[in-house]
Specification:
This is CAAX prenyl protease 2/Lysostaphin resistance protein A-like domain-containing protein. The chain is an all-alpha fold. It contains 15 helices and no strands.
C-alpha cells in the first residue's frame, strides 16, 4: 500500500490544481446528475441505434467528455503547449474513434438473429458482443502500436518490472464490503450478473462458464485501452495531465450503468490511472478490474440463485 500512496502523493504534487479539479468534478457531477434524472445521454445515443450514425453519435459523446476536460486543463492551468502537437490530436482522435467503434458496431446482431434459434439468440449476442468489443480494442491498439509507436517498449503497460502484487489484492479486500452492500440494491440487481437471463434452452452453468471467460477477458482490453493506451501513449505529450481526460472518458463509458457505479468509475479510473502512469504497468489495474467485475457478478448470482441456477 505504501507504493500506491507514494504514487498518489507524487501525482498530486505534479498535477493538482484546485481550480482544475473543482471544475472537473463539477463538470462530471452536473453531467451525472442530469443523466440520472433524464437519461439524456441514453436518449441521445438511442436516436441513432439502428443506423450507421451510431458510431458518429458515440464519437461526439466521447469527444465531448475528453475535449471538455482538455479545455478545463488548458484554461485553468494556462497550458496551451500540447494543443499545438499533431501527436496529441492524432492519438486522441484515434482513441475516441476506437471506443466509439467498440460500442457502435452492432452488425453482428442482425446476423445472429437471422441464423440462430430465437430462444438462444440473446446468449449468442452477449458472447459475440463481448468478443467483438475485445477484438476492436485489441486490434485497434495493435494497429496503432505497429504503425506509429513501436518504440513503446512496455507495450502500453504489459510490464511486470518492479511490480508488487500485494497492494492490489489488499485493495480488492477493501472493495468487497462495498460490493456486498451494493448487491442488495435494485439498480445493481437489474444490471448483474452481466450475463442476464439465458432462458431454459441453454445449460446455465455452461453458459455462465463461457460468458465469464469472455467477459473477464474483455476487462483486460478495457484496462489496456484506458490505463494503457490513453495514459501511457500520452505521457510524452501530456505527462501527468493525461489522467483527468481519461477519467472523463471512462465515466462516459459507464453511462447506462447504475449511478453508483458511474460515480465509482471516477475514483476507480483516477486511482488506476495514477498507478499506470507511475508504475508504467497496467497489470495491477487488470487484477483490480477483473477482481471487482467477478465479485459483482458473483454477489448478484448469489442474490438470484433461485432464478438462475435452480
Amino acid at each position: 500500500m505504501k507504493t500506491i500512496v507514494k504514487y498518489i502523493r507524487t501525482h498530486l504534487k505534479e498535477d493538482y490544481n484546485t481550480s482544475t479539479y473543482l471544475i472537473f468534478i463539477l463538470f462530471l457531477s452536473v453531467f451525472i446528475s442530469i443523466n440520472h434524472a433524464t437519461d439524456l445521454a441514453v436518449n441521445f445515443l438511442s436516436n441513432t441505434i439502428n443506423t450507421p450514425l451510431l458510431v458518429v453519435s458515440y464519437f461526439l459523446f466521447f469527444g465531448f467528455a475528453y475535449y471538455a476536460t482538455i479545455a478545463i486543463i488548458v484554461f485553468t492551468k494556462s497550458d496551451y503547449s500540447f494543443i499545438k502537437s499533431r501527436g496529441f490530436w492524432f492519438t486522441s482522435i484515434f482513441a475516441i474513434l476506437l471506443v466509439s467503434l467498440r460500442l457502435g458496431f452492432l452488425e453482428h446482431y442482425k446476423w445472429i438473429y437471422e441464423n440462430t434459434a430465437p430462444e438462444k439468440a440473446f446468449f449468442y449476442i452477449k458472447i459475440a458482443t463481448r468478443a467483438m468489443r475485445t477484438l476492436i480494442f485489441s486490434f485497434g491498439i495493435l494497429f496503432f502500436y505497429y504503425f506509429f509507436e513501436k518504440y513503446n517498449t512496455n507495450f502500453y503497460g504489459f510490464s511486470t518490472k518492479k511490480l508488487s502484487w500485494k497492494p492490489y489484492f489488499l485493495l480488492l479486500l477493501f472493495v468487497i464490503p462495498v460490493i456486498i452492500i451494493a448487491s442488495f440494491q435494485p439498480s445493481f440487481l437489474s444490471q448483474y450478473p452481466s450475463i442476464g437471463y439465458t432462458g431454459n434452452t441453454i445449460n446455465k452453468m455452461n453458459a455462465l462458464a463461457i460468458y465469464e471467460a469472455v467477459y473477464l477477458l474483455d476487462f483486460i482490453s478495457i484496462e489496456w485501452f484506458f490505463r494503457g493506451f490513453l495514459v501511457l501513449s500520452m505521457i510524452k505529450i501530456l505527462g501527468s495531465k493525461s489522467i483527468l481526460p481519461m477519467v472523463a472518458l471512462y465515466v462516459f463509458f459507464h453511462i447506462g450503468k447504475p449511478t453508483g457505479e458511474i460515480i465509482g468509475s471516477i475514483f476507480g479510473g483516477y486511482l488506476l490511472g495514477i498507478i499506470s502512469l507511475h508504475s508504467k504497468s497496467i497489470i495491477g489495474g487488470i487484477i483490480i478490474h477483473i477482481g471487482v467485475a467477478f465479485l459483482m457478478d458473483f454477489m448478484a448470482i448469489i442474490q438470484k440463485l433461485d432464478i438462475y441456477y435452480r
